[in-house]
Amino acid sequence: MRTVFIALMPLLLVPVQAKSQAEMYDGKPAFAEGTDLAYYIWRDGNSWHVRWTTRGAARRFTGSVNSDGGKLKSLKRIDVEKETQVLYPGRPAHVWVGPRGRAHVGGGRAPVTVTREQDHMEMDGDNTILFNALTTADIDGFDFKVEEKVESLRFTLNINGAPRPQLVEIGRDNQKPGSLPLRVSLK
Fold first, then answer.
1. Domain ranges of the chain
2. Residues 53-92 pLDDT 10s
3. Which pTM value belongs to this model?
4. What are the CA-CA distances from residue 177 to residues 69, 74, 123, 171, 184 (Å)?
5. Any residues with CB less than 8 A from the CB of 152 and at least 6 apart, and which?
6. I need a surface site. Which of 7, 22, 91, 167 has the fewest CB within 10 A?
């Protein structure tokens, strides 16, 4: 008969501090312009950042951010596209002197431009940011700050009119929240 010795190690309990819900949003997630399709949300202190990008196809990004208990402030639009885009540069007019010594002007054409008025990012009161943007192969979004009194934030995010929770990534670890709207407790 064999004797079996089992060494028992004392169990060590080490307290581990769990991350608060808001800490999951700390740090910028990894994403690339024109190659990813998703919303990206992160915070740095009391500054929050919301970005979106597409895989090149035009997509409509709509939604809102709402705060409870305090105000949102310092809304800053992030848009790498120009508000007015020149499609055709135009052509300068030609000036010539005719046989009688008179100056003549002709042959010119004004530039053809397109103004991007379909994108809207605006404050609606002190507690709500509304946005509606058509984005192609670039990065768009906005930044905002929260007052210390803000207890929670709610992000409503849609792509082409539908919530797509699988296309939302948060914080430096690119975590996927799983459901929309996102509710973030700050207290």
1. 22-83+115-185
2. 988 788 999 999 999 999 999 999 987 555 445 545 667 7
3. 0.72
4. 23, 26, 25, 10, 11
5. 67, 68, 69, 183, 184, 185, 186, 187
6. 7
| Closest by CA position to 141, among listed 168, 109, 115 | 168
**In this structure, which amino acid lies at residue 122?**
E
CA dihedral for 137, 25, 14, 5, sign (positive or negative)? negative
The token pair at 9 is: 């190690």
Q: What is the pLDDT of residues 85-108, one digit of tens each?
A: 554 566 777 777 878 888 777 777
Measure the CA–CA gap between 17 and 114, rounded to whole angstroms. Answer: 53
Class assignment of domain 22-83+115-185?
mainly beta
Other CB atoms within 10 Å distance of the CB of residue 61 = 22
Task: Calculate ∠ Cα 57-61-66, nearest 5°.
Answer: 165
